[in-house]
Design goal:
143 residues, alpha+beta, Multidrug-efflux Transporter 1 Regulator Bmrr, Chain A, eight-stranded antiparallel beta sheet
Amino acid sequence: MEPEIVERESFNTIGLTLTCEENELHFLMPELWREFSRRSGEIPALPEARPMDIALSRRGTTYTQCVGLPVASLDSVPKGMKGHEVPEGRYLFVKHAGPETDIWKTFANMQQFAEREGLALDPVDFKIDETHDDGHHLYQRLS
């Protein structure tokens, strides 16, 4: 499936945040998701909220990730969690219906598409992975 360009409005999210080296992601992210599953009920989430894995930034080989839920405001952030304001922007979008272990391949295909089409990707590698009933909705921010 070819990516499409979509506009996303700004939103707030609250969740658990992790900063680590790229080679640590494969074993630290599952633990972050387990902790999020235990604590997600503490988040004052919007009624239609879907869990999100947001790649907030990449600096060299250091990544900052947030697993959280969208919220109306950042006024009530539970202890040990962080709130983030995600600005509006243009994104490449794809529905990923395969195994979760192949999500990275879908993001790689999105990056190849952007290169072929002459689209500049966000320099901090900002990405959103929303969990839906029909799979994962993947967004890669454009510059």
